[in-house]
Amino acid sequence: MLFQLLGPLEVQATIKPGKPATVLAALLLDRGRWVGVDSLIDSTWHDRPAPVSAAGNLKSHICGLRRVLPPPASGDRIESRQGAYRIRVAPDEVDVDLADLQAAEAGRAFAVGEPERAAELLADGLALWRGRPFEGLQTPAAAVEGARLARLHTRMREDLAEAYHRLGRYWDAITVLHGLLDEDPLREHAWAKLIRLLTDTGRRNEALTTYGRARSIIVRELGVEPGAVLLSAHHDALRGCADLHSIAG
Fold first, then answer.
1. Are 145 and 134 a contacting pair, CB within 8 Å?
2. What is the count of structural domains for the chain?
3. Which residues contact 223 (CB under 8 A, 6 or more apart)?
4. Which residue range(s) make up the domain with 201?
C-alpha cells in the first residue's frame, strides 16, 4: 500500500516529517481533485499565521514530494496548474479507498448469501486501521472525513459480527460486539445485535441482563429510553423466555 491514511500518515517513500508530510496529507485528503494553494497553505500552517514566504515554501515542499514519491503508471504523481495542485493515485494505492471498496464488496456478499466472503472482506478491511485517520491534519475537511471513516469503521465491525453470527461463529461475534461497546457504550444497534445473538444461542437470561445494562447506560447518559431497534431485540428475548416457560409448564 503506497499511501496509508487510516492512522498516522505512512508512505512507501522517505517523506520529511512536519510541513512536507502535512502538504502530502492535505493533497491525499482531496486525491484526484485540484486543491488551491490558499487551501494548502491554511492546512500546512493551521497552528499559526502563515509566513510571507508561505507560497514559496509550499512550492518547495511540492518539489521535494515530487522527487521522492513513486510515479504513477503514466503522467506525474503531483500535477500543477495556476494556483492549484492535484495528486494522482490509483484506488489500490490508498488504504481509505481499499477500505471503502471492501465494505461495499462485503455488502454485496451479504446480499447474495455469502457471509463467509463478507467476513473475509470485512476482517481484511478492518485490519487497515492503525489509529485515527488523517492524524495530524487539523482542517475542517479532515474532521469531516475522519468522522465518516469512524462511522465506516463502526459499521464494518457491526457487519463483521453479523457475518460471524450467520456462520455460527458466535463467540467471535460476541467478542467483536463487546469490543465495540467498550469503546461506544451508547451504540444501540450494537447492543441490539448482542442481545439477538444471545437470544438466538439460547442465552436468553443473559440477553435480558444485557438489555438491562444497555438501558441503564442510555438512560443515565442521554436521559431517554432506548429506541425501537433495542426495544425490538428486548421483546424478542422476552418472547423467547416466555416460550421456554410455556414448554416447561
1. yes
2. 2
3. none
4. 185-249
C-alpha cell at 189: 444497534
Contact 96, 9 (CB under 8 A): no
pTM score: 0.84
* Bridge partner list, 36: 84
For 232, how many CA atoms within 13 A lie in the half-sphere containing its CB?
7
The model's pLDDT over 218-232, given as tens digits with 9 standing for 90+, comes to 999 999 999 999 999
- Cell numbers 522527487 correspond to 67
Residue 189 lies in a domain: yes
Rounded to whole angstroms, the Cα distance separating 49 from 243 reads 68
Tens digits of per-residue pLDDT, 64-116? 999 999 888 888 899 999 999 999 999 899 999 999 999 999 999 999 999 99
Which secondary structure element, helix H or strand E, spans residue 78, and what is its range? strand 78-81
- N- to C-terminal Cα separation, the chain: 61
Residue at which a domain ends, from 55, 90, 125: 90
